[in-house]
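agent> step 3/5: call structure_predict on target 'Carbohydrate ABC transporter permease' (Paenibacillus rhizoplanae).
agent> reason: downstream docking stage needs a structural representation; sequence fetched in step 2, passing through unchanged.
tool.input:
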Amino acid sequence: MTSVTAAAESASKTAPSSKKPRRFLRGEEITAWWFVLPSFALLLIFVFYPMLQAFVISFQNYNLVGSTRSFIGLDNYKSLVTDRDFLASLRHSFHFAIVVIPIQTAISLGLALLIQKKFKLTGLFRTLYFIPVVISTAVAATVFKLIYNKEFGILNNVLKTLHLPTTNFLSNPDTAMNGVIMLGIWKGVGFFMIIFLAGLNNIPQDLYEAARVDGATKIQQFFRITLPLLNRTTAFVVIMTTIDAIKLSGLVFVLTSGGPNGATETAVYYIYKMAFQQMQMGYGTAAAFILFAIVLAISLVQMRLFRNAEH
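tool.output (status=ok):
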């Protein structure tokens, strides 16, 4: 009995001390929620609620001119599936993405490899390569619009010097998208260069030293060490480039306004045109959700592929 009593007394003494950490952790959790609450409230008010409202509008015939609404079910989505202009805008967006993704990723990685090594002008080159990222989209598009000009543009002056035929790149449906692509690559390559540089700096140098001892060449080191260890960084770059490419709109808006003859009209520009120029908000919102579903599906597939490659 004495041993049982002693055990009970010791248990009663230790019980409060065991409850104290739980109370402390619960207090920390409540404090953390108070810090998170303002951000969550902002997201709820300015992101999630508008998305829910937009989803509801996509099932309506909503005209901004007369502010008339009527529920039409899936009619907007059915019309978009057979809308030639919308399907053409999707093709233009995917054309831009398919060209930009590999070229921009390769250039970004190449520049990161060049500036990774320390020398006197490393900081200068990093700054020069990153300047296009911080330049306003409107300013960059305006400058390129002048460069592409047939009469006094720099590009056509170079072609004249080389005795090659000149052309107005932005007025020709066959070359207008190429002009947008060059501007898009120039504008975004610096940001992803910094991302790749951070990934390269996280690779242990001991691996390269061991590879050199084993007689591995630079190319072998790149394909056996650098690329495999940059898998997660590459996945991030490719996914973000894909999203940015498919939702391209700002450059098109300033550079070509979707022309000539709709040759550069991307999906996002089409959504803007339907919603705010033709005032068909329900139709434009439905197009936006179709584009959202496409981008989400592509991103999930890319994440799965990169995860499998990593394993």
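agent> step 4/5: record observation. Confidence is low (pLDDT under 50) at residues 1-19.
agent> proceeding.
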